[in-house]
## 1
Amino acid sequence: MSAYIIFIKEREHDAEAMATYGQKAGGTLAGHPGKPLAFYGATETLEGAEAAGVVLIEFPDMEAARAWYNSPAYQDARKHRFQGADYRVVLTQGL
């Protein structure tokens, strides 16, 4: 059953750290079956806190999504995201 990781950027506070994150995170899907479906396109917040940006990645299942998220390559990139912005990250199972 498909699974989705949703990154919701709430606020950015260090553009340089985010640039480093972008450079490092871009290649981390290599060898993983993740498919980006949305990547910081136009957003419209209909309810709740305003989103500064959204990324949506589809995986074949929850296990594959966790394997990518917990991979050493993504974990190395992630530390720069923590320095650069505040995010909510959600893993959800599809239909």
## 2
Amino acid sequence: MSTFVIFIRNQMHDAEEFKTYSAKSAVARGDHQLKAHVYYGAVETLEGDPADGVVVVEFADRAAALAWYESPAYQEAKQHRLKAADYRVIMVDGL
């Protein structure tokens, strides 16, 4: 069963830190098998708090998603994301 990791950017604070995050997160992909379905396209909030940006990434299963998220390379990149913007990150199993 596929697992999706959803990044919801609430508010950007530091564009330079975000550039660093983007570069490091691309490297963190490494050999992890993932498929990006959404990458900061146009957002229209229909309910709830507005989102500044959204990313949706698909993994084969929960174990694969966690292996990527918990990898040293992504954890290093994540430090820059935390400095760059406020996010909600959600992991959800598909059908």
